[in-house]
UniProtKB/TrEMBL annotation:
One function term, GO molecular function aspect: transferase activity
Pfam family name, one: Glycos_transf_2
PANTHER family in the record: GLYCOSYLTRANSFERASE, GLYCOSYLTRANSFERASE 2-LIKE DOMAIN-CONTAINING PROTEIN
Domain Glycosyltransferase 2-like: 3-140
Lineage of producing organism: Bacteria, Pseudomonadati, Bacteroidota, Sphingobacteriia, Sphingobacteriales
Protein name: Glycosyl transferase family 2
This protein's record includes keyword Protein biosynthesis: no
CDD domains linked: Glyco_tranf_GTA_type
Amino acid sequence: MFSVIIPVYNKFPHLDRSISSVLNQTFQDFELILVDDSSTDGSYEKIQEFSDPRIRTFRRNVPGSGGYAARNLGITNARYEWISFLDADDEWELDYLKNVRKAILSSPDSDIITVGWEEIDGNFFHKNLKIGDKALISFDLADYLNQPILVWTSATSIRRSLLSATGGFPSNKPCKNGGDVDTWIRCLSHSRKSIFINQILAKYYRDTVNRVTNYKTNKSNIFCAYDTLMSIYPNADRRTRLGIKKFINKNIYNILMRNLNSSGSIDYSMIKKMYVTKYSLTRISKLFFLLLKNKF
């Protein structure tokens, strides 16, 4: 019922953990697609050691930025309609697929199913998202723009048909980070229904080798998705438009603040991309105050 896709690029120390968390699922009706992205640390040889008939292995000759092309190759070769993603250095709880399947059966018109996830940094555990007491929560693009961690790639299952219709991951865009955000924005803008399972079922490990994703906002995170947001804005409802404005302003402000703290300067071209709102005017005023304070 599920095609599970794991892109692999130089993740040798973490492969036993991630792959085993899939193979040991309590719900066993799945295929596992491992796509090696031209690893040089023995990862490709490692994944070939797993002898399970549900595993299918592919290898790309040239590594792609952000793992996007590797995921797209997996999507192209997937046999099932429902696709679940897991990064090679993350992990699922053993009843992850069982709970996703249960949500699909209870809401058959859903196109996207996401779950709560836990961030782990060394010995520090932080439950990132749990909302109230409801077991299943419907959400849309506007909700995601206000709370982006509603959709995290290793905690997301999605219909293959929706991914194909919206172009998959942006392997042709010049962004190492932020391509996931761009993908989920496009998918949510076309999703009939999206469901969040209000339970911690996935683990995000920060202290891993060759980590691509960084949930601190960076320039590529916003600008990889900027054109997509601008294409959605004209026909969006008022709530989604407000979400787009807030998302863009908040991300740009965070980038400018970090740049100011690290280099003492401001990228004025980025300010021009902000929407004029009470939020942006207040934040821009704060930036200029800090800039002047640093200079005198």
